[in-house]
Fold this sequence. Notes:
It is a single chain. This protein is of the alpha+beta class and 162 residues long. It has one domain. 38% of the residues lie in helices and 36% in strands. The chain has 1 helix and 10 strands; from the N terminus they run H-E-E-E-E-E-E-E-E-E-E. The N and C termini lie far apart (84 Å).
Amino acid sequence: MPQVVVSEIIMSGTAIVIMILLTSYSHSLSQILMKSAAEARLEEIAKSIELEVQEVVDVALSSSCRPCLVYKLLSIPKYVCDKGYYVEVRAQGQVLILHLATIDEVWKTELEATVPGAILVTSGTFDGVQAVERVYSGMKNVVVWCMVNATGVYYGLGVLRG
C-alpha cells in the first residue's frame, strides 16, 4: 500500500514539474513574439517618419518663396502593444538618426536616413512650430518641419503651438 502512495506522489510531482515547464515555455515564447511584433511596429513608425521628413524637405526646397517653412502633422499611434513610446531625433553629419523606444526601454529600434544639405534643429520656435528633440506617443500636434532661408535648410521634429 505505501508503494502506491509513493508512486502517486512521484507522478503528481512529475506532472506539476511538466506543467511549470510548459507554462514558462509558453510565457517565454509569447514574450519573444510580443517583442518581435513591437519592434517591427516601431520600425514601421520610424520609416513613416523618415518618409515624412524627406517629403517636407523636398517640398520646402522646391518652393520658390524664401524664407519658407513647411510642416506636416504626424499621425502616429498612441500605443505599441499597449505601451507608450517616444521618438527621438539626432544627427551625425547629414545622417538623421530616428530612435524609437517604449517608455520603459524594453522595445526599441533605430533608423538612419540621409538628409543631404539640411541641418537638424532640436530647439527654438519657428512661426508657431516649437522644435524638439523628443516627442512622446499621445502628444497632440506633433509635426515634422523644414525651413529654408538665406542661411540654409533646417528641419526637425516639432510641436505646433497656438
